[in-house]
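haha ok so turns out i had the wrong file open the whole time. this is the CORRECT one, sorry everyone. sequence first:
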Amino acid sequence: MTISTTTTLNDLLPSIVAEAMFVAQERSIMRNLVKTYNLGPQQGKTVTVPIYPVSTAYSLSEGGDITGNAISTSGATLTVAEVGLMATVTDLSRVSSASNVVADVGRLFGEAIATKMDKDLTALFASFTTNTVGDHTTALSAAQVFQAVSKLRALGVPGADLACVVHPSIAYDLKANLTNTFANPNAGIMQNEALATGYVGMLAGVPVFETSNIDNTGTAGDYTGAVFHRDALGLAMMRDIQIETQRDASLRADEIVGSAMYGVGVIYEQYGCTLENDSSIVS
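then structure:
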C-alpha cells in the first residue's frame, strides 16, 4: 500500500521560523564615559580642543608689582571620518522570509557600528603613557586599581568623573582578588555584592565597568584597561548612527546601509592610567 508521508508531501508543509536570534554583541559603554563634541553642518571635520596648563599663584610683597605670567595653550585635534557597512536584500528573500529582514539587518548594523565606536575608544587606553600600572604579566588586583587612582589624584586629576574599564577576563581576577577566590571569608558589603551580582560596582570611589570591546595586545589573555577621567578622551560626533535603505529596481532588491561620522582621540593623556594585565583564565 502506498502511503503519503511528510517526506512525500514536504512541499505542502509550511516551515515554522522562530523569532530571529542575534549573536550577542556587547552594548556600548564608552560613549557615556568620555567627553563628546558635536559638530554641526559646515563646521569642518576637525575639532581642536585647547588645553590650558596649570597656573601657580605666588606670595606678594606690599607695594611690589606682580610679574606677568605667560599662558600658552596646547591643543588636541579630533578628526572625523566615516564608518559603515552595507547589505543587499533581494525582493524574493524579503517577501518569502517569515521575519522582517530589513529591520533585523538594520538592528545588526546599528550594533556593529556601536561596537566599532567602543573599540576605537578603548584602543586609546594604551596612549596613557604618563601613568601605567602593571606590565601584562600579572592579574588585576584591587591594590592596582587603588594605585591607578592614586597616580591620577597625585597629579591633581579631579576625583569626580573617573571610571575604570577592563575586559571581562581581567575583571574575573579582580573579583577573585576581592572575594579571596570567591570564598568571601570577611563577608564585606563589596565582597557580597561581587558574589551575588557578578559586578564589582565601586572601587576606590570609581565605578568599574567591564566590556568585551577591548582587543588583546596580540597575546592571548593580555588586555589593556584603564582608569581615566572623562576629559582624558574625546568623541567628535558629526552624524550619529544612521540606517538607510535604497531601492535598486533593476536588481529587484533593497540596499541597506549603516553609517556614522565620528572621530576619537586623546584629549589629555595625563588624565588616564593604563592597567596592563594578564588574565589567569585565558591561555
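Residues 101-122 form the longest helix (22 residues).
again sry for the mixup
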